[in-house]
Design goal:
With 444 residues, the protein is of the alpha+beta class. The chain is 51% helix and 8% strand. The termini are far apart.
Length: 444
């Protein structure tokens, strides 16, 4: 196990040697039963906190937890059996498992005997891919309404189905998510889900329950929206397919895939009987408000917005060198990696049922055109830092002090060099600066 197998074994061994019960519990058991390496392992025991501190004297023991207290022993969570969200009174293992959210997360394993404690049918549900709340769905949801979002995440993780009683309870108590769950926790569930094979299951489940309208209303507005003449699927379905087509290794880019067309709900027009979405890549106020509410960082918000702003700019097999340079300059200005833009473009095409995917030949031609402009014998300039002259050079040539004119001049030079990379030499740029049409009265 990744999380220090020797340490976990030592902790369980010491607890048992001191006369206490000790088990691996929760999500680690679920992962082990599925043949996965657990990322985190929790140990539960009937030892009280004072017993744990005594037994592990000499270890690094740190108290943690808000709803119920646990101890981190050398980074491993060791918790006393819990009876309620606020109690640490030692009770039975089964009572502890009863308080957990889902049956598939309510199992315990003895690492020595291999015995599985499964009082609520978690193994059966795991085999049948059923998401079911432990015992009373109503009670589990009321204890923590974020469990509705977590249930959707675990549905995605195991590619399963909801138990009908659990689904009914989630729909009944859906308003508790907005009323009681901290946005940071919802954001965390979203980002964890983006690591799975098919996150569209998560967003579709939230929408079916009625929670997506509270979590990501901009995305929810795309449900059932006509995709227009260039698509054979709805806008929502398109966003789902695009997000699924992107790599789990690039979670932020994947989120962009799920959100990239939400502006279509704001810009939809019917012109001569045809649906149009002019400027949808820039109509992002609602989406940005959603990201802000969910406590995404300013950097994350800016990056997501920039990628969506640029997603309609495409390099084609017949794009001119000038068009490629302007595209690369736009990417650099918005601090976008052009490879991320290409990944999004490829996924965007995969999610379009009216168009074929890019062929390998097409992609090779597109990449070659970009590489030629980036690394050719006369590589282009795509940002001010790439120019052969600096701001100090401009000040010297114009014989002026620092001011707005310096930035304006550099931008004019960059625009010219993007069109013609051969101009990016000190001699050419100096001559351009001294031309009467550039050297206007504002320079005096």
């Amino acid at each position: 196990m990744r999380h220090g197998a020797k340490t976990i074994d030592s902790i369980i061994h010491k607890l048992c040697r001191n006369g206490f019960e000790a088990y691996i519990a929760g999500g680690a058991v679920r992962d082990l039963l599925q043949g996965y390496e657990p990322s985190d392992v929790d140990v539960v025991t009937n030892a009280k906190t004072e017993d744990i501190r005594r037994i592990f004297r000499g270890f690094k023991v740190v108290a943690a937890g808000k709803s119920f207290k646990v101890n981190l022993v050398d980074g491993i969570e060791v918790a006393t059996y819990r009876n309620s969200a606020s109690s640490q009174k030692p009770v039975s293992l089964e009572t502890d498992l009863k308080r957990r959210d889902l049956t598939i997360n309510s199992m315990a394993l003895c690492p020595y005997s291999g015995d599985l404690t499964d009082p609520f049918g978690g193994l059966r549900d795991l085999k049948n891919k059923v998401i079911r709340f432990t015992e009373s769905p109503e009670a589990r949801i009321k204890e923590d309404p974020c469990r509705i979002v977590r249930a959707c995440r675990f549905l995605t993780k195991i590619d399963g189905v909801f138990d009908q009683n659990s689904l009914k309870a989630m729909r009944h108590y859906k308003n508790l998510v907005k009323a009681q769950v901290a946005p940071e926790r919802i954001r965390l569930e979203i980002m964890k889900t983006l690591e799975y094979a098919k996150p569209s299951i998560f967003f579709n489940a939230l929408q079916s329950i009625g929670v997506l309208a509270d979590i990501l209303p901009a995305l929810n507005r795309c449900m059932g929206l006509d995709g227009g003449p260039y698509h054979n699927e709805t806008v929502f379905a398109h966003c789902m397919m695009v997000g699924d087509a992107l790599s789990p290794q690039r979670k932020r880019l994947r989120l962009v895939g799920f959100l990239h067309d939400v502006g279509k709900a704001e810009t939809i027009q019917i012109h001569n009987g045809r649906v149009r979405f002019i400027g949808h890549e820039k109509s992002l106020d609602r989406m940005m408000a959603d990201l802000k509410t969910l406590k995404f960082t300013i950097n994350e918000q800016t990056h997501i917005k920039a990628l969506i702003n640029l997603h309609m700019r495409r390099i084609k097999t017949d794009s001119t060198p000038k068009a490629v340079r302007r595209f690369l300059a736009a990417c650099q200005k918005k601090q976008i990696d052009y490879t991320d833009h290409l990944r999004l473009a490829i996924a965007d095409r995969k999610g379009n049922l009216a168009k074929p995917d890019y062929t390998q030949t097409q992609l090779k031609v597109i990449c070659k055109r970009i590489r030629t402009e980036l690394f050719g014998t006369q590589p282009g300039a795509f940002g001010l830092a790439d120019l052969a002259l600096t701001g100090r050079d401009v000040m010297r040539i114009l014989k002026v002090s620092q001011g707005p004119v310096i930035g304006q001049t550099l931008k004019k030079l960059l625009a010219a060099v993007i069109d013609n990379p051969r101009l990016n030499t000190p001699e050419h740029l100096t001559a351009m600066i001294l031309e009467p049409r550039m050297n206007t009265n504002e320079h005096q």
